[in-house]
């Protein structure tokens, strides 16, 4: 019967190396799992969500709450760019499945009621006047959302490529709810504390 391998001084360095490799692999796996299923960091490169979110702000998007309930109007969410799925966009949900969206004289209406939107920077512009190349030919106002469609708009309405241009977003494209600004330090806090965050 073979004797068990002895724990000699010569074997101990290799054991330490293997233990550290295991710890590193486990840490990387945990970090990837957290990013995939719990929270994910983002940096905002554009002005489309001013003044709620500033250019260069870094924030966390949380993914847990939408496992329990569907996204709600007023939520600031991240989603895959329909024109470039590898890019993540961040906008505010204006209308949810089954609701009717309309834009008249620069004002937004949902189910016939004009929205009170103190967080917007300028009224919505006519899509043909700006970024005409991105205009969605399928959008005719008033537009009623399908069972799996959400209407997204940036708070900075005069400088945002959103559902006015690329149409509604499918539920499966929504990746997280904007939750916590962690950079810069003087802006640190939840989006609930930001001036444009609807509660």
Give a description of the structure.
This protein is of the alpha+beta class and 199 residues long. It contains three helices and twelve strands; from the N terminus they run αββαβββββββαβββ. Strands 1, 2, 3, 4, 9, 10, 11 and 12 form an eight-stranded antiparallel sheet that branches. A four-stranded antiparallel sheet has the order 7-6-5-8, with no helix packed on it. A hairpin with a 2-residue loop joins strand 5 and strand 6. The longest helix is centred in the first third of the chain and has 26 residues. The termini are far apart.
Total strands = 12
Low-confidence stretches: none
Q: What is the architecture of the largest domain at the second tier of CATH? A: Ribbon
CATH superfamily of the largest domain: Umud Fragment, subunit A
| Class per helix and strand makeup | alpha+beta
EC number: 3.4.21.89
Main location: membrane
Domain Peptidase S26: 18-183
Active site: 48, 91
What keyword list fits this structure?
199 residues; alpha+beta; Umud Fragment, subunit A; 2 domains; four-stranded antiparallel beta sheet; 17% helix; 28% strand; serine-type endopeptidase activity; protease; Pept_S26A_signal_pept_1
SSE topology sketch:
Layout: H1 12-37, E1 39-43, E2 58-62, H2 65-68, E3 76-80, E4 88-95, E5 100-104, E6 107-110, E7 113-114, E8 143-144, E9 149-153, H3 163-166, E10 169-170, E11 174-183, E12 189-190
Antiparallel strand pairs: 1-2, 2-11, 3-4, 3-11, 4-9, 5-6, 5-8, 6-7, 9-10, 11-12
Summarize the structure.
With 199 residues, this protein is an alpha+beta fold.
